[in-house]
């Protein structure tokens, strides 16, 4: 049976009039279902809304028993309505009663209807409810009718998301407004309570229904052409999109921009009576709903490419500039982003920043390093984070557990607020230990130093009572800059570092780029396995001018004081001696030109490549000091990519194999008289640090937040007792089992805070 004359355009005009009427939300919804039923020539039109408790409630109907409204509820997986809600796709049946999912509620009176057409109410890919039409006859709904219903569903979804229907049933909301709990990966410890600020705010389409179709078609075509041209230009120049993504990604985005099916669906949506921007929003919401439910991770990843294209089109149509605003933030702001670089985070006013939530970014990503340095709780790998919440939504970030709570219930908010208060009291206790030397109960002195990479980190020296900087990452200055820092700019930074640290020791690591640390102004090198590729000291030795400029800036900045310089990713003793030779040549150059030299210049190597374990005596003899980069050492030792969630937890740094590797380093460094520090993540965790003390390590470098907990642990142990425990457990751990259970039990029995 054909649709009524005028089709979706007439229906949308009538819906616009109904939306403008000064009536209650229920009266407006009742009027809307009557209009839809008349347009599609259906005997039944019903709207089901997804409630906070994950049930679908009948909110309005034309044709079914009106007394069932706000009474009938279906489980989210119940019947045909539940099937549509779960699959987020339309369902058209000439005989619904023959479908295996068919079920009905007697109170609605729908058992006499056969033909069935239902479409999901989608917003940003999230299902908010279901719109259904039904007929007694065995009829087939036309493509035009399905299109009309989908277009109408978009208008209803916006009505639901606005909260207009909230008052119609106590506790009833929608998928857009209900509480959401998501688990990702911890990036930076801490608990932040606040409200969502989108780093790149989602463009809100306010004008949904077109006054006239023809001008909207022209607007859409012009926007498509402009976006295509911009992407073609990016591909030709080889530029990255947003964050220096590879040419392969650019080509993928261009492929989508020229995809005929994607463009056809947007044109059809405009022809149905939507504005150009509403058509883009509707088609992308459908795409998002389908791709979010894909099991293939590659297909799910392509969702980001389509989102990027849709946002480009929307910005072009509405006139917004790309990117999010930075600078001032409202009080208690939680930034939510698909991804973000360290420079973008540093652009924000940190006084009001309480947390960061990312769809991308792992624990060792650059943004995680900066968040930890700033003491901002952060969680990464939250799927679909930017579509889960709107600006202003209440949100809680638990950086320790890697969880977020969006629109939390009062009970959950109260529980987290109490946790935040407990953490604050604990931090006060740690601050009380600031000036207490980190000495074990049997008088073993432990040196606690800070990891840093930005000038802002150095303020934590006084706050924590740290004994110096055990690792200053120089690459962060390069990563947040828009161009290669000059020798003078580098020297200015290093002078500021020395001025801020005073007489405290500072260990500066030379540039550690490559792998996942790509500088935006340097061409990226495509490698099969970047972690094992051209990076760190390998780049410095192959491009000695880059290393020489940095070393000259360091030596000039340290004139008249002591300095420690450390080389990363050293795999052989020969690499270290070559780097040392460059330092000696730079010192000779400065001496010839009358520059003051450092009073003492010690050179060290990072032990993070397993090959050094088999040259440990030789490297300890050549280097003035060693520093264990436990993050990379564990990654390479176990052949496990620490960014890969499938395998990252397959090993425990407290297992027998890892402990023996650490013991080898500590024992041989001591025998050779070479000082050694642990500067990787495990040194900042109390239980792991306790184990390392038992193995003989006496110096650690860590994030500012770790100083207090580790010092509290140090003050409560006897090093000799821990050493005896470790030796006994290692003797038993012949199968490589973890020492964690034994160490945890020991700490509990001895009252050691871990």
From TrEMBL:
InterPro entries named among the record's database cross-references: GAF, GAF-like_dom_sf, PEP-util_enz_mobile_dom, PEP-utilizing_PTS_enzyme, PEP_util_C, PEP_util_CS, Phosphohistidine_dom_sf, PTS_EI-like
Highest taxon above the source species: Bacteria
Cofactor: Mg(2+)
Broad class of enzyme this protein falls into: transferase
Compartment(s): Cytoplasm
GAF domain span: 24-170
Chief place of localization: cytoplasm
EC number, as in UniProt: 2.7.3.9
Keywords in alphabetical order: Cytoplasm, Kinase, Magnesium, Metal-binding, Phosphotransferase system, Sugar transport, Transferase, Transport
SUPFAM superfamilies cross-referenced by the UniProt entry: Enzyme I of the PEP:sugar phosphotransferase system HPr-binding (sub)domain, GAF domain-like, Phosphoenolpyruvate/pyruvate domain, Phosphohistidine domain
Catalysed reaction, written as an equation: L-histidyl-[protein] + phosphoenolpyruvate = N(pros)-phospho-L-histidyl-[protein] + pyruvate
Family, per entry: Belongs to the PEP-utilizing enzyme family.
PANTHER family in alphabetical order: PHOSPHOENOLPYRUVATE-PROTEIN PHOSPHOTRANSFERASE
Protein name: phosphoenolpyruvate--protein phosphotransferase
UniProt organism field: Methylobacterium thuringiense
Record gene name: ptsP
């Amino acid at each position: 049976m054909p649709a009524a004359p005028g089709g979706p355009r007439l229906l949308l005009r009538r819906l616009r009039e109904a939306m403008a009427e000064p009536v209650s939300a229920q009266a407006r919804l009742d009027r809307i279902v009557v209009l839809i039923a008349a347009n599609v020539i259906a005997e039944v039109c019903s709207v089901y809304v997804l409630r906070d408790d994950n049930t679908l409630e009948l909110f309005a109907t034309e044709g079914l028993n009106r007394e069932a409204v706000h009474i009938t509820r279906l489980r989210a997986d119940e019947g045909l309505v539940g099937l549509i809600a779960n699959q987020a796709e339309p369902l058209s049946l000439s005989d619904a009663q023959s479908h295996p999912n068919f079920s009905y509620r007697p109170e609605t009176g729908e058992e006499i209807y056969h033909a069935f057409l239902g479409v999901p109410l989608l917003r940003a890919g999230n299902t908010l409810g279901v719109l259904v039409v039904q007929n007694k006859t065995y009829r087939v709904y036309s493509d035009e009718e399905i299109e009309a219903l989908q277009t109408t569903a978009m208008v209803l979804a916006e009505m639901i998301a606005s909260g207009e229907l909230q008052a119609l049933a106590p506790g009833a909301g929608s998928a857009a407004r209900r509480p959401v709990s998501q688990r990702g990966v911890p990036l930076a410890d801490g608990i932040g309570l606040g409200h969502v600020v989108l780093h790149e705010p989602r463009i809100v389409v306010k004008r949904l229904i077109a006054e006239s179709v023809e001008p909207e078609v022209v607007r859409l075509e012009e926007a498509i052409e402009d976006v295509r041209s911009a992407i073609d230009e990016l591909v030709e120049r080889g530029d990255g999109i947003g964050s220096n993504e590879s040419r392969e990604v650019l080509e993928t985005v261009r492929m989508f921009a020229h995809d005929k099916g994607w463009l056809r669906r947007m044109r059809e949506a405009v022809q149905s009576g939507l504005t150009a921007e509403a058509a883009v929003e509707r088609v992308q919401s459908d795409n998002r709903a389908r791709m979010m439910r894909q099991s293939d991770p590659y297909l799910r990843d392509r969702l980001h490419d389509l989102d990027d294209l849709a946002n480009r089109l929307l910005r072009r149509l509405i006139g917004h500039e790309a990117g999010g605003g930075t600078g001032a933030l409202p009080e208690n702001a939680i930034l939510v982003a698909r991804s973000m670089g360290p420079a973008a985070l540093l652009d924000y006013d940190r006084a009001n920043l309480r947390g960061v939530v990312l769809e991308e970014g792992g624990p060792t990503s650059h943004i995680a390093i900066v968040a930890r340095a700033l003491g901002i709780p952060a969680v990464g790998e939250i799927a679909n984070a930017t579509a889960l919440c709107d600006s202003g939504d209440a949100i809680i970030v638990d950086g320790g557990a890697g969880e977020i709570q969006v629109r939390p219930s009062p009970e959950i908010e109260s529980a987290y607020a109490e946790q935040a208060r407990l953490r604050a009291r604990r931090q006060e206790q740690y601050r009380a230990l600031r000036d207490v030397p980190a000495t074990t109960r049997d008088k073993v002195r432990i040196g606690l130093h800070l990891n840093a990479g930005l000038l802002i980190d150095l303020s934590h020296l006084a706050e924590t009572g740290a004994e110096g900087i055990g690792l200053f990452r120089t690459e962060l200055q390069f990563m947040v800059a828009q161009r290669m820092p000059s020798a003078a700019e580098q020297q200015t930074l290093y002078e500021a570092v020395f001025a801020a640290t005073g007489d405290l020791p500072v260990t500066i690591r030379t540039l550690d780029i490559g792998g996942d640390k790509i500088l935006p102004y340097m061409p990226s090198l495509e490698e099969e396995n970047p972690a094992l590729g051209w990076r760190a000291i390998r780049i410095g030795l192959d491009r000695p001018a880059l290393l020489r400029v940095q070393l000259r800036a360091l030596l000039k900045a340290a004139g008249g004081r002591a300095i420690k310089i450390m080389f990363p990713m050293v795999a052989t003793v020969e690499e270290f001696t070559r780097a040392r030779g460059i330092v000696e040549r730079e010192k000779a150059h400065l001496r010839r030109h009358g520059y003051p030299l450092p009073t003492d210049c010690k050179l060290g190597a990072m032990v993070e490549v397993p090959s050094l374990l088999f040259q440990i005596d030789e490297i300890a003899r050549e280097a003035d000091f060693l520093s264990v980069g436990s993050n990379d050492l564990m990654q390479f030792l176990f052949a496990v990519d620490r960014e890969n969630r499938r395998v990252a937890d397959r090993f425990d740094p407290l297992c027998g194999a890892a402990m023996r590797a650490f013991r080898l380093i500590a024992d041989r460094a001591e025998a050779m008289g070479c000082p050694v520090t642990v500067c990787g993540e495990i040194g900042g965790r109390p239980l792991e640090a306790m184990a390392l003390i038992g193995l003989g390590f006496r110096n650690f470098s860590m994030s500012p937040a770790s100083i207090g907990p580790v010092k509290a642990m140090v003050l409560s142990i006897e090093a000799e007792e821990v050493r005896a425990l470790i030796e006994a457990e290692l003797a038993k751990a012949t199968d490589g089992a973890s020492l964690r259970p034994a160490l945890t039990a020991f700490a509990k029995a001895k009252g050691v805070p871990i």
